[in-house]
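Hello Y.,

Per our agreement to keep a running log of every chain we model this quarter, I'm adding this entry. I've kept the format consistent with earlier entries: sequence first, then predicted structure.
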Amino acid sequence: MKEESAILQLDRALLRAQTDYEEINRILRPFEGERGVLAPINENLIFHGDNLELLTELRGREKFSMIYIDPPFFTGADKEANMMRDGELVRETAYKDNWSTLEEYLHAMALRIMLMRDVLRDDGLFFIHVDWHAVHYARLLMDEIFGQDRFINEIIWQYKSGGSSKTRFARKHDNILMYSKTRKYKFFIQKEKSYNRGLKPYRFKGVEEFQDEIGWYTMVNMKDVWSIDMVGRTSSERTGYATQKPEKLMERIIECSTEEGDLVGDFFCGSGSLGVSAAKLGRRFVMADTGNLAMEVTKKRLGEAGIEYTVRGRE
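Predicted structure for the entry above:
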């Protein structure tokens, strides 16, 4: 039997998601008029459960300056983590990434992204983190939901970790798609080192140059390829959770899109990297995940960092 076209599955997924989204709006609209001014979120919050439930509740609350999500990548395999239990290293399932069809995956993603768009401020930015498995689908979903003209960047997160193959080039990067909700969005350009040719000084008039242990460089506006190491086995950040993202990566996303005191969201929070980084930078956060292990790791990390938070959802 011939495999069904990905385009047909994408179209059906978007139609189903739009129908579900309109039904949620129909149910919630009568109550939203009674809420009046949007209620502020004055505490850091982690929600244990389906983010769909949380996103419907957040519609009457303060909106987010930035949303970052690191959802399942449509790998077709469950992800495991190495955790210490009673002094022994044990492998546990971190989250499931098996889907019956591509349509089911795209429907789940599309509906949630529609609701996340609603709780994003008009001047806010949205980041979706994927890899080669799903980046082409994610781009189409985001173009449809946010609009093609709201696409800003495809950030390439380049790293050294992982395996290699004799039948293809080694896959050593993830993709982070960056979209705005409107044309007027907050963005704070970051600077990075650009080493001179030959690592020697140019001595151009009006050009400020610097020197480090590598050589001479200038500071330039940051490019869309970011070379940041994964969380290695010896890193103090390491939790053992599968697909843990480094705090340096989270910090860069937070700093380019928010100011101190702003509210940020991560609705597939995994090991809680975004929340930890946000709190250290003086931002407030809301995070959610369905996984028991994700909640365990996130709460432990926040506690060890001395970060105050409230837990909602199943315990």
